[in-house]
Amino acid sequence: MWISLKRALCVFLLACGASASAGTLGDRVSLQYFYPDLNTPTRSFAAQLVDANGALFSNVAGVFDLTVTDTQVIASNFNTNAMWLGGAFNGFALTNLDHDFQPFAALGRQTNMPGFTPANVSISNNVAYVNWQGLYFDENTQVVLYLSAVPEPAAWAMLLAGGLILMLALRRGAR
Questions:
Q1: Rounded distance, CA 172 to CA 83, Å?
Q2: Cβ atoms 101, 129 nearer than 8 A
Q3: Number of compact structural domains in the chain
Q4: Sheet holding 64-68, edge to edge
Q5: Is a pLDDT exceeding 90 seen at residue 62?
Q6: Which of 8, 47, 75, 121 lies in the 20 to 30 Å Cα band around 135?
């Protein structure tokens, strides 16, 4: 019975430790659109809190909506068929006013803007830049960026404690 209780405790600790992460939930984010370079902002948006529903920036550049969730940045609801003009930079800068962004992880499978690759995204401390100059889009276009969520120190401690208890339980069970 004691070993079963220990195993149940281990599973609980491992599950709790694996779920904690340091994403953008609870952070304030702001948005600026730039064209034709990063020295020329064309539109700025007030800071918003990323809550359970995310933060929504509507009608960015008069063309799309941008939603920021705990681990994603989603550009959707494009309202026309067109091409982003060329220039040194035609895109947006998303700033996390509370923390640095974690490293860019991947493009979501839902991303369907022709020619958009991870090279169009860069992160520098608390600012994520998306430059889509020269790329085409239409009303069905969607761009989904995944930011990696990094476990918080408390999560690492729980994970380590759960692993140690599991090792002890297995070691005693082998006797």
A1: 65
A2: no
A3: 2
A4: 55-60, 64-68, 72-76, 143-147, 104-107
A5: yes
A6: 47
Give the burial string for 24-45 (b: 16+ CB within 10 Å, else e): bbebbbbbbbbbeeeeeeeeeb
Please check whether residues 33 and 73 belong to one and the same domain.
yes
Q: Residue 159, SS3? A: helix
Q: Same domain, yes or no, for 89 and 161?
A: no
Contact between 132 and 90 under an 8 Å Cβ cutoff? The reply is yes
How many other C-beta atoms can be found within 10 angstroms of the C-beta atom of residue 158? 21
Q: What are phi and psi of 33, to 5 degrees?
A: -105, 140
pLDDT single digits (tens) 3-38: 554 555 444 444 444 444 458 999 999 999 999 999
- Residue 90 falls in which region: left (phi positive, over 0), alpha (psi -120 to 50) or beta: beta
